[in-house]
């Protein structure tokens, strides 16, 4: 008689060191707190999706985030399994590609495509949403299916007050640079919101970092259309969440377009910023037409 063997990653979720943090429509988010005597998932010398010490405030002994895409009972089992494996693989590969191209993303600790489980670095920081004075998702508006109550990588003890205007402006520049690098790597995030960006403060007098998270809807594309749609999603997020933030999003775009041309010049290939801007205007027009007709 065949013996059913549970996958190690699923057994791990039952560990006393693992705590359910939140649940969304697509995944459950757990926090793994390693005991003091545990070994690390990755050797410190390995730079896989950013080494354990590559982001300020982190260390190899930090908590881990475990994201589990649980089976959907309303789907046929084989379809659910295929979708889970595909989406998990896409997310893991996007994180690795992003890290190789110098983009700030959580380090990938482990992945189990079959079970839909990803282990990720915990980030010490706060969402850009909070940095701009808004509460976590779910406090003021209904959260989207791809998000999980609060940022899935932010420690709860992070400061929550809004940043001053000068620092907010610096954060917008950091966001623009990260998005330019992301798109230059042909990675489309798919769900850009201020909840999916973490600001990691640095030492006094030093510039902090913006870390992009939640690549659950990511895809790979080099088209101006997909890049423009990615930017438009973020623009709408700013408009709906941060009143009077037009000047902040303008700073993101200005930096994005400038950096896009710098990267293109360095690589000798890629889309010009003017082409992406023209496409963004078309996407905006389509969005306004949809709003008019309801």
From TrEMBL:
Catalytic activity reported: L-threonyl-[protein] + ATP = O-phospho-L-threonyl-[protein] + ADP + H(+); L-seryl-[protein] + ATP = O-phospho-L-seryl-[protein] + ADP + H(+)
Cited Pfam families: Kdo
Superkingdom classification of source: Eukaryota
Keyword tags: ATP-binding, Kinase, Nucleotide-binding, Serine/threonine-protein kinase, Transferase, tRNA processing
Residue segments, region Disordered: 133-159
GO cellular component: cytosol; EKC/KEOPS complex; nucleus
Biological process annotations from GO: tRNA processing; tRNA threonylcarbamoyladenosine metabolic process
Family: Belongs to the protein kinase superfamily. BUD32 family.
Annotated TM spans: none
Species annotation: Ceraceosorus guamensis
Domain Protein kinase: start-end pairs: 15-294
EC numbers on record: 2.7.11.1
Protein name as annotated: non-specific serine/threonine protein kinase
Molecular function as annotated in GO: ATP binding; protein serine/threonine kinase activity
């Amino acid at each position: 008689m065949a013996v059913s063997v549970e996958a190690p990653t699923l057994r791990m979720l039952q560990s006393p060191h693992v705590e359910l943090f939140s649940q969304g429509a697509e995944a459950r988010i757990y926090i793994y707190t390693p005991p003091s005597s545990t070994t690390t998932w990755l050797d410190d010398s390995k730079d896989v999706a950013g080494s354990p010490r590559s982001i300020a405030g982190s260390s190899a002994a930090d908590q881990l985030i475990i994201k589990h895409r649980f089976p959907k009972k309303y789907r046929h089992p084989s379809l659910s399994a295929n979708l889970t494996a595909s989406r998990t693989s896409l997310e893991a590969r996007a994180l690795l590609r992003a890290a190789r191209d110098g983009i700030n993303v959580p380090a990938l600790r482990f992945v189990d495509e079959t079970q839909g489980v990803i282990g990720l670095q915990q980030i010490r920081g706060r969402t850009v949403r909070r940095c701009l004075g808004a509460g976590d998702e779910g406090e003021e508006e209904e959260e989207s299916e791809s998000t999980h109550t609060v940022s899935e990588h932010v420690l709860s003890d992070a400061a929550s007050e809004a940043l001053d205007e000068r620092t907010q402006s610096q954060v917008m520049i950091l966001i623009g640079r990260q998005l330019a690098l992301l798109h230059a790597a042909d990675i489309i995030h798919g769900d850009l919101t201020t909840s999916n960006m973490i600001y990691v403060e640095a030492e006094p007098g030093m510039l902090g970092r913006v870390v992009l998270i939640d690549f659950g809807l990511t895809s790979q594309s080099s088209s101006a259309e997909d890049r423009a749609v990615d930017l438009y999603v973020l623009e709408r997020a700013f408009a709906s969440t941060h009143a009077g933030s037009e000047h902040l999003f303008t700073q993101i775009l200005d930096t994005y377009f400038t950096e896009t041309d710098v990267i293109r010049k360095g690589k000798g290939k890629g889309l010009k910023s003017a082409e992406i801007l023209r496409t963004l205007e078309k996407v905006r027009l389509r969005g306004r037409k949809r709003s008019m007709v309801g």
